[in-house]
Amino acid sequence: MKRIVYLFLGILAMSCVKDRDFEAVAFQCSEVGVNTTYEQVKALYKGETIQIQEDLTIEGYVISSDQAGNFFGVLYFQDTPSEPTEGFQIEVDLRDIHLFYPIGSKIVVRLKGLYLGKSKDVFKIGGVFTSFGNTSVGRLPATVVPNHILISCDGKTIIEPRLMTLAELESSFTNTLVRIPSIEIVMDEVEAPFAIAKEETERHLIDCDDNELILLNSGYSDFQDIPLPAENGNITGVLLRENNTYSIAIRSLDDIDFTEERCEEFVDEFRSEQLFISELADPDNNSKARFVELYNAASEALSLKGWTLNRYTNGNLEISSTVDLTDLVIEGKSTLVISPNKTEFEAVYGFAPNLGVGTNSPADSNGDDTLELVDPFGAVVDIFGVIGEDGSGTDHEFEDGRAVRRSTVVKGNPDYTSSEWIIYNDSGQEGTLNQPQNAPDDFTPGTRD
Description:
Layout: E1 6-7, H1 9-16, E2 27-30, H2 38-42, E3 50-51, E4 57-62, E5 74-78, E6 87-93, H3 97-100, E7 105-110, E8 115-119, E9 122-131, E10 134-138, E11 140-141, H4 145-148, E12 149-156, E13 162-163, E14 177-185, E15 201-207, E16 212-217, E17 232-242, E18 245-249, E19 256-260, E20 275-281, E21 291-296, E22 302-303, E23 308-312, E24 321-324, E25 329-330, E26 334-339, H5 342-349, E27 355-356, E28 370-374, E29 380-384, E30 402-405, E31 421-425, E32 433-434
């Protein structure tokens, strides 16, 4: 005979817990069959929130818990107890969900009448919420929850989180239970509370390769005021996502096992006095062939992570434009060429620049601007020109010409020194040479003179 058990957990909860209001809802275990998959349900979505009309059912395993107060009004479940491929979230207007659907419960979800939507690229199901004529997924009223979320008669099972590194995070694992190894709270947040009281708070986790993950905490959780740990270790939680940004939410402090030493500090930003500006170009015959050349006088390659090249246009005291050099590496005894017009540069000089940037960038100076090379720690390593002084008619004007660093210079200079440069222009003032320069013949990009 089919086994049917009625669970009056709402009444039980009222008799066991003080000062809380509970909805008296009758739950029954179910042996209803499953007739669709998560993938097929998601395929019903065509760009706007819909109410599911088909008599569809899916099953899943509960992975979230609001017992510690870090989840509210939402139930997360995944397709298998271990190695899940997909997860779902359903919004419900029900308090103390963990009493009705404990972690590990196998549930059957009747989808007919529920709403399916997508928010920030994440699917969710539930009731309906309408605002200013726009329909979206809202919380399912408590009185109809047992009609749609049934507890399977199979009983509870152990949920095994998927072990994965931050580098392995994929959108398909959204709303599933994961365990991230060898991770720690960023040092700036160590000893801060998990959350600001009564506010949803983002804290930040980092692994030993500098990959980051948001730790999402409720200001109403039982552990809200507990200091964040300093150690390294494993964290288990529900993987959440908003578009391409991932976060994790723990069920309780038991999900955090930080007992190991922190990662060794990984140094990937470097200073160097031997990187400097070696040539600037504003060709008289072709303004699209402008460029900036940098030179590394050291024997070793230099990562330019955190380095920037700034431009102060004319006599401006504020930075007008910046080029971020982070993704580049300059070899020892080598140049690096930056062009504002990559296509034109290659057509004129016969090879591609190391970096193509836009017009009005530091590489697109018309000869009367100041350029500044800054290391990852904010120190000015080299400069051409004087900040706040328009270069026209000065010893740092290279309009329609070229500024080339003398071969005797082997390191940058944060104070502009005109004697370190040979400067060609169309005026010849203040010790410069009145010799307009034409591309390509008068320039040597990629070659240290």
